[in-house]
Amino acid sequence: MKIVEYGKQNKDIIMLLHGGGLSWWNYRTEAELLGDRYHVVLPILDGHADSDADFVSIEENASQIIAFVNREYGGSILLIGGLSLGAQILTEILSQRGDICRYAIIESASVVPSKITNVLIGPTIASSYGLIQKKWFAKTQFRYLRIRDDLFEDYCRDTSKVSKSNMIAFLKANTEYELKPGIQNCRAQVRIVVGEKEQKKMICSAELLHEALPGSHLEKKTGLYHGEYSINHPEQYQRDLLEMIRRQCHRV
Asked: Which of 36, 49, 216, 242 could form a disulfide with 190 if both were Cys (CB 3.0 to 4.6 A apart)?
């Protein structure tokens, strides 16, 4: 597993898992802001640009990250955050190892499978994959995703590097993931975030996660679409993250 690191000199570790089709730069600004006091680890998820392995499944990616934390950091770190596919992987990590972190931020994790969408992914990507290499198409997708302008070159470069097979694999995994019973063993303090303007499926998923995690905190971000919180408002994300840690420390 490849990673990008900030603040390696610091003791407490924060890991942030990017969204599907993106890469570590999803959280670059947060890492720059947090790197003066935390060791920030940004893994490149399997099947994405410059990763060292093809995408197999959410469960496999989660197991690899758990093994990495066990090997490199003694089995536990301060906080893990994730967006979309990264948030699904985080949810699976917490299901497999409920004590792996003290805090978790789950942003826009779908846990409601969609069979119809899942069936359509293969044919849709197969017929449109050639367009991904074209800059005009990347611009269209970029605008649709509402990603802030300064990330376009990163998006264009890395999206074109994702193979057709990997794209199909992680998109299908994204549409078929559902909560595991093991989530009930999660011991982390969890903050669940979803945009107010996201699809009903995403809002329903956030509510299901909140119900499955007693003591978790659910936030519906006013006026935001999918992924806008961490991607377009990194300063606010960083402030909220620090407040979450401070608030819980004061309770201990």
From this structure: 216
At residue 38, the 3 state secondary structure works out as coil
- Per residue in 126-181, pLDDT (tens digit) is 878 888 778 888 899 899 899 999 999 999 999 989 999 999 999 999 999 999 99
Whether residue 19 contacts residue 170, with contact meaning beta carbons closer than 8 Å, is answered with: no
Tracing tokens 């078929």 back to the chain, one arrives at 176
pLDDT-based confidence at residue 252 (cuts at 50, 70, 90)? very low
Task: Indicate the helix (H) or strand (E) that contains 89.
Answer: helix 85-96
- The 8-class DSSP code of residue 106 comes to E
Pairwise CA distance, residues 127 & 124, whole Å: 5
- Give the burial string for 170-209 (b: 16+ CB within 10 Å, else e): bbbbbbbbebbeebeebebbbbbbbbebbbeebbebbebb
Whole-number Å distance between alpha carbons of 224 and 194: 8
Identify the CA nearest to 81 among candidates 97, 67, 93. 93
- What's the pLDDT score for residue 123? 86
Q: How many residues does the chain have?
A: 252
Residue with tokens 């303007």: 197
Domains of the chain with bracketed CATH: 3-113+178-251 (3.40.50.1820)
Find the angle CA(121)-CA(126)-CA(127) to the nearest 5 degrees: 105
pTM above 0.90, yes or no: yes
